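Project standup — Tuesday

K.O.: blocked on the structure for the chain from last sprint. Re-posting the sequence here as requested.
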Amino acid sequence: MSDISKEPYKGVRDFFPEDMYIQQWIFNGMRDVVEKYGYVEYSASILEPASLYRDKSSEEIVNEQMYTFRDRGDREVALRPEMTPTVARMVAAEHKKRSFPLRWYSIPNVFRYERPQRGRMREHWQLNVDLFGVNSLFADVEVITIAHDLLSSFGLNTDQFEIRISDRGLLNTYLSSLELNDEQTTQLIRLIDKRRKIEADKFETGLNEICGEKSRDLLSLFEATSVAEIRDSLPQTDEVKEKIDRLEDVISKLKEGGIENITFDPSLVRGFDYYTGIVFEVFDTSEENNRSLFGGGRYDRLLETFGEEHIPAIGFGMGDVTLRDVLETYDLLPEYESPADLYICVVSENVLEHAHTVAQQLREKDVRVVLELAGRAVGTQIKDADTSGIPYIICVGEDEAQSGEYTLKELESGEETTGDIEAIADIILGE
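H.V.: unblocked you, prediction finished:
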């Protein structure tokens, strides 16, 4: 007896046909929305030099979650844990050949060594939407609007999710005023990033350990519900004033565009070190699945790390696992539908060749056909067609083979119609 497990590697998924149906439905829904905004699809290998992420991803991803190995040339290679450094590399490599702005998207699989739990797997697929070459606040508005439209297109209403927004640069400015050393600042940012995931008293204890008495001011800052409330807490420099004005303008224009479920959250940092300005995160509001779904922000300096000129950029990543969870929470996932239109039941083996010809003629007319090949009993074939969700069936026997007339049965209603191949194709295709 073999001791090879039938289970997949821990933290990854097998996609059986019913699962793949939902997965493709999700991907197609993603593509429909982003392509309405003129975004074009790209792709890249799952393998990247590990060095690509060391200065461009979060410390947690690099040190704790990244899958790495040495190839036969003794190069350190990583399975991509996120897509943004890859697309930044691609744009940096070709920016002189391209006309900006670039609106790109992809739906890659990414890998992180995490503890598998609801909403988190070691492999997942992630819609990445990125806009390069536009510094205007309308780029921020467009990308956040796309994020909003995606969830709306899948059937969520505005009471079921909210968009939290801030500016990473403003928070960085405030943290600089605390006069912490580099290690303390890193610890503080990681703690703030976990604020919504841990208990309030544990968060406050962590703040006290890092900031001491200054933690009170930081907690007070995090309680602000509008951008105006934090103005006096920040250094009164032109850069800070410009960022505050821009953040207020972005929120205002989003609301003018009908996005009312957006709130200011000064504690929003996002986990990646490359964010420089506007950041946002989308949260499910249900008690059952009250968590972050996805997010993104501005990373205007990431391409400079490749030695290239400054190219402003903003984007987000939406994971398929968290999206599927929220759609399941609100009962918005579709029921499986067979890709086939028609099942051809073969009454006896001596008409199989004729049934094969019928199947091919119907396929030439764009009817999707499953042909019985296993020689099973007629009752078993009909039951198989029904349980597979195939809407129509015809049975081919000696009489049908001689007459060229077939009885088409709609399995759900039981309605029957007799006709030749042309007539059957017209009924199935609704012509």
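K.O.: great, moving the ticket to review. The CA atoms of residues 164 and 263 lie 5 Å apart. The radius of gyration is 28 Å.
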